[in-house]
Specification:
28% of the residues are buried. This protein has a three-stranded antiparallel sheet. It is mainly alpha-helical and 199 residues long. The N terminus is likely disordered. It is elongated. The chain contains nine helices and three strands, in the order H-H-E-E-H-H-H-H-E-H-H-H.
Length: 199
């Protein structure tokens, strides 16, 4: 009785490996990265003589254009992981990892050189390329770096968590529940044809 009771407990995945938990975490983090790109990443103080307004707010989608696309790729990967097979999960994990690294790198570039990241917006506002201005980054590039790092963790965990996930199709799940496969079904029909009870 003890060994039979311990079998189901051994098959229960840990919390970090549960499909709903990992997929939801990946989707939420991807949406969080995308959300940061809609906010101001750089505050710019222009020369009052160069433009009618001395204040300019540069969104993340303008300061680091790649982050928006990478966030959407990560979002698609997180959703696809919920129905993917073992090999596909490895491919998705690689894509998620590369997307996360790209997000971190793009946000880090903005933090390292905010003036360079804001040059496009400054040129659009003043009509002058390479102009000087006082710039300051907001908290959102840092948030993008943190969420990108957490996405990378999800990418690393995904292939190993997938080992705990059950079969992904209703047909396979139903067949596994019955404990029968094609060979068992053929044997059952042979038994019936001989007048025997297959059960």
């Amino acid at each position: 009785m003890t060994s039979e009771a311990s079998v189901p407990a051994a098959t229960v995945p840990p919390r970090w490996a549960r499909k709903p938990t990992l997929v939801l975490a990946t989707v939420v983090l991807a949406l969080a990265v995308f959300g940061t790109t809609t906010q101001t990443w750089i505050d710019v103080r222009l020369d009052p003589n160069a433009a009618s307004s001395s204040d300019l707010h540069v969104q993340g989608s303008k300061a680091a254009t790649a982050v928006t696309a990478l966030a959407l790729v990560a979002l698609a990967g997180g959703l696809a992981a919920s129905i993917a097979g073992r090999i596909a999960r490895w491919i998705i994990a690689v894509i998620l990892g590369l997307s996360a690294v790209g997000v971190i790198a793009a946000a880090a570039i903005v933090l390292a050189d905010p003036l360079g990241a804001a040059q496009g917006a400054i040129a659009a506002a003043t009509g002058i390329s390479g102009g000087e201005a006082n710039v300051a980054t907001t908290l959102f590039p840092v948030v993008a770096v943190i969420t990108g790092a957490l996405l990378a963790v999800c990418a690393l965990v995904l292939p190993f968590a997938g080992r705990y996930w059950k079969t992904r199709t209703k047909y396979d799940a139903g067949r596994a529940k019955r404990g029968t496969g094609p060979v068992d079904e053929i044997d059952s029909w042979d038994s019936l044809s001989r007048g025997e009870d297959p059960t």
